[in-house]
Structures are given as C-alpha cells and as structure tokens.
Specification:
By secondary structure, the protein is an alpha+beta fold. The chain has 15 helices and 7 strands. Among the domains are: 76 residues, TATA-Binding Protein; 123 residues, Endonuclease III, domain 1, CATH 1.10.340. Strand 4 and strand 5 form a beta hairpin.
Length: 292
C-alpha cells in the first residue's frame, strides 16, 4: 500500500481537525493516527517528525497523484492559517485564547452531498451518535470504497439510492425523524437535475446568506444546518454557524444574549469577516473543551 509524506506542515493538528465537529467519518487510532474516508478514498493519516525535526504528514493508502488531486485541497493546505490566526487574535483576547486551545484546526473542504446528509443527521444529535448513524447508513446502502487494517469502509449513498428508500428501509439506521428528511432532500436534489446542478447553483451565490437561503429549500435544512453546509461543503469561510455551543461561548465570553442569534451573526460579520467560519471552529472547540 502506498504512503505519501508531506513535509513542512504548520498550524496542523489531526486531533483538532477531526474533533471540532466539522466531520464525522474519521476515527482516532491507538497510535494517535486517524483512519477515515473522503471522496471514495480510505486512508490513514499521522503526523510525525523527520530526522531533521521537521513536522510531516504521513498518509497511508495515498499516492502522490491522490494527494495532489484530493487531499491537498481537502486539508486546505494552501491556506496560511498562521496569518489567519494573527488577524483573528489581534485585539481579541477571547479569540486568542480559543486559538491557543485549537491552534491546529483547519477547515476541511468536504464533498457537498456528504455534507448535506451529515448535517441533516447532525441536528439535535451528539457527535458519537451522528458518527454511528452515518456509518450504519453507509454500510447498509453505500458502495464499498475499500478496506484498511481489516475494517471495511463505505461511501455515502448517492441521491439516486437515497431517493429510492423508504422510512422503513432506514429504520435500522436509527435516524428517527431525520429519515424522511434525507429521502425528500435526495428527491429534491434529483428534481433539480442532480448534485452537479445543485453545486453550480450554490456556486453562484454571492454571499453565505444567499447560499443558506438556497439550502433551506431542502427538507430538514434549517438556518444552523444550512450554515454548516455552506462552511464545510462549499468552503464559505465567511459563514458562521450558530448552535448551542456557539450560543454558549458568545454569551459567556462576548456577553451577547444567548437567545440573540442575530446579534451573534452581526458580531461575527463585523469582527471576524471573511474568516468567520474559522473563528467559529476555534470557539466551538474551545467551549466544548471547557464544558465537557
């Protein structure tokens, strides 16, 4: 099995990246590495140091072509997160502390359909259960993508497959009220011409608000889910998803009324701007660490 090594990584921590609520298909191994699947590829990632002390990312199950075509963008390697952190932390001691806690976070550039499915499942749900539901869904209805260390991995079922299912079919996945949302959303995607059309129409959205308005056409997609999809599935880094954790941190540390979501969004636009989504992840990771 091929292994690719990318040397000279900075502002990069797998625990921070895969445990900040943005993705659900990566599992931490006993040696600190993570095994997971994205874009139909199953790999294991581990950070190590070379003999000269330079930090490097080792991706087992990856060739140079796959790294260049898939993982470089997926891991947002082209972005200077050090510069982003400097901008966000300037004059903001709260954000500076949050950044210090989750300094290695990067926003993954995930598959749009997978992100839609994942965040519909995520609503009113906890991360371990979200992961379990997604894995059950993929194992029962997705195509096998590969194996790693004896474990099998499956892709998210396509809109075509999802649209053909019934609530009874999905009962073993234990999605509850979310099951009909997924089925109807898949049917809506197909009615629009499929994910290629949906991606193109979302790509034309000038602002995250326009993207979220479009996404809210889909069954079960409310403001928070739409904002998460915009951030994690469209790379709209100016999106600022607000869930119970973000409401808590904005109230506790920025003294904004916990019920005043509009004020929180306005604060994020004014103070975090085009880096709002990255700021949100630092804050989310920070408050969960304080309260869990």
């Amino acid at each position: 099995m091929a292994k690719y090594i990318y040397k000279g990584i900075k502002d990069f921590d797998l625990d921070h990246i895969f445990d900040c609520g943005q993705c659900f298909r990566w599992t931490r191994q006993d040696n600190g590495s993570y095994t997971g699947i994205a874009f139909g590829r199953v790999v294991n990632m581990q950070v190590s140091s070379s003999e000269d002390g330079i930090h490097q990312l080792e991706i087992d199950g990856c060739c140079e072509e796959d790294f260049n075509n898939i993982w470089y963008d997926y891991l947002d390697m082209a972005r200077d997160y050090g510069a982003v952190k400097d901008i966000l932390a300037e004059g903001d001691p709260v954000m500076a502390k949050a950044i210090e806690t989750g300094t290695g976070i990067r926003i993954l550039r995930q598959d749009l359909w997978e992100t839609i499915v994942s965040f519909i499942i995520s609503q009113n749900n906890n991360i371990p259960r979200i992961k379990g539901c997604i894995e059950n869904l993929c194992r029962l209805f997705g195509e096998k993508a590969g194996e790693y260390d004896g474990a099998e991995y499956y892709n998210i079922p396509s809109p075509e497959v999802m649209a053909s299912l019934t609530a009874d079919d999905l009962a073993p996945v234990r999605l509850g009220y979310r099951a009909p949302y997924l089925i109807e959303t898949a049917r809506q995607v197909l009615a629009k011409g499929g994910m290629e059309t949906v991606s193109a129409e979302l790509g034309a959205a000038a602002t995250p608000d326009e993207a979220c308005e479009y996404l809210r056409q889909f069954q079960g997609v409310g403001p928070k889910v739409a904002s998460c999809i915009a951030l994690f599935g469209l790379a709209r880094l100016d999106a600022f998803p607000i869930d119970v954790w973000v409401r808590r941190v904005m109230n506790r540390l920025y003294e904004i009324d916990e019920k005043d979501v509009k004020a929180m969004s306005a604060y994020a636009r004014e103070n975090f701007g085009e880096n709002g989504g990255i700021a949100q992840q630092y804050l989310f990771y920070y408050i969960r660490g304080l309260d869990e």
